[in-house]
Structures
1.
Amino acid sequence: MVKQTLRLIKARQSAADEQFERDMGNATNIAIERRLSCLIAPQYADFDFATFQNLDLSGNQMGMSKQMQSYASDIELSGYHSVLLSGQPGRGKTGLAFCTLREIIISGKRAEYVLWRDLIAQVQSTYSTDEDSQAIIEKYASAEFLFLDDLGLMTKANVSDDYLDRTEYLIERRLLAKLPTMITSNLDINGLWSQFSERLAGRINDNYARLIVTGKDLRK
Ligand SMILES: Nc1ncnc2c1ncn2[C@@H]1O[C@H](COP(=O)(O)OP(=O)(O)OP(=O)(O)O)[C@@H](O)[C@H]1O
Ligand SMILES: [Mg+2]
């Protein structure tokens, strides 16, 4: 009788534990799904490495896809801490970077995405309100992983020194904190040197893997 009761208690306990594990798993999945839909731009939402590799690729697009896939699956093991993906328009930089971001979010890292132009616009909007511009930079400076899209698309004439300083500060802060960053840009290191500064280009040159995506324009 006692044995039977004990068995019943044990069975109930293990059913409760299993339910708890399932609930936790579901909660994590919901949190990840929400994060993905918040961060991945809608036009890239259905893309992954498989859909990229099924495109009519040329140049080094397939090789770049494989390299980004290995970076996404284990940043530390890939040997790259941070990545600058450069190349001409339509080569697949943003698409590859979103596939990478997706994997990193799924792995549970607290990641952020921002289009560089939007970051500048967010900072600019604080000039006419009470909002703290530093808080905006802080959010991206402290994220466990950051995807900064389309760095340097404006001409120097359009970007005040303040924005350039803030961009430098953001990149510098992340390097100091050893937080990985993935940047896409039409500019290579020389272009960043002339549009930003020797300091910013030097930091990226010394600390980022610099990958240049070649091949045809995937939009054509
Ligand atoms: N993972 C993917 N799966 C399927 N199609 C993709 C994927 N990534 C990119 N593409 C296709 O390739 C096109 C160009 O890709 P993408 O926007 O990444 O280019 P880009 O190099 O970032 O260009 P730009 O320099 O203009 O920002 C996309 O509009 C999309 O049609
Ligand atoms: Mg792009």
2.
Amino acid sequence: MRPQDILLPTADGLCCKPGGFHIDPIRPVERALITHGHSDHARAGHGAVLATQETLDMMRLRYGENFAGSTQVISYGEELRLGDVKVKFRPAGHVLGSAQIAVTAKDTCIVASGDYKDAPDPTCAPFELVPCDVFITEATFGLPVFRHGDAALEVKKLLASVALFPERAHLVGAYSLGKAQRVIALLRKAGYDAPIYLHGAMEKITAYYQSRGIDLGELRPAMGMKKAALAGTITLAPPSATSDIWARRFPDPVTAFASGWMRVRARARQGGVELPLVISDHADWDGLTATIAATGAGEIWVTHGQEDALVHWCKTQGLRARPLDLVGYGDEEESEPQPRSEAEA
Ligand SMILES: [Zn+2]
């Protein structure tokens, strides 16, 4: 069977005709398989949704109980037959509950990896390598300039700054789903045991992580705190809030931002970020290329991000490769409703 007879890029997203479903569709479809809870992959309004328990819970948190006609849980490693294909979900190491979806028809296996990272993350199951014939990879950081390094060292930088400026507050911009909880877990791993403060927009999802057994230590809402009491503390907030009127409640805040984009200095400067922290939930260039090679796939489909360089690299390795030109995926926070400062003030 030709791979394109199994999975085909369409305007709605990746479509599996023989299985009767779409993967991470951007428009409402009859049956959707969802890789993870970020809003550019997990949208409301589908007839039926198949995903991990965590992804379904996150969709429920964000969109309410009736986000889909019906839902079905699939565990990592469990095999399901859908129409003429078999599907399996495997950990993607991106955020809690994130999965790669392996679709097998006859002898051909295609893995749609969604967003993934091969770096360690104390808040989710580690990325699992799935040998396959066709590997569909993201390319968010698909340029050789992107090398994320060790996230633990970035957290050390943050703690050094907190020690250096005990009279100032530290405001860390981080995406609400995944990144914020990972930064908190990394702070705890580094031995930081003071209470950590949260912007209201990340309280629910962070409490959900805790309810799934992720130990994040003592967390407090930043709202209602006296300005002086926030000196020497660390607060996590959505990136947009750190440059907002909301930030005025903090004493002389040091603005940090935890993102793979912080490798680009101009980007940090532009955003008024004083303390850039290179911490990403996506594979960097070395991670992408190492993963592609390790899957043993002879054919690589590249989607959302810097497709060109990665497609070119694949060809130099003797692999067949093409960009999928799927639209609608990218920076999750951009597609999230912005936190309302008025409600927070
Ligand atoms: Zn994502």
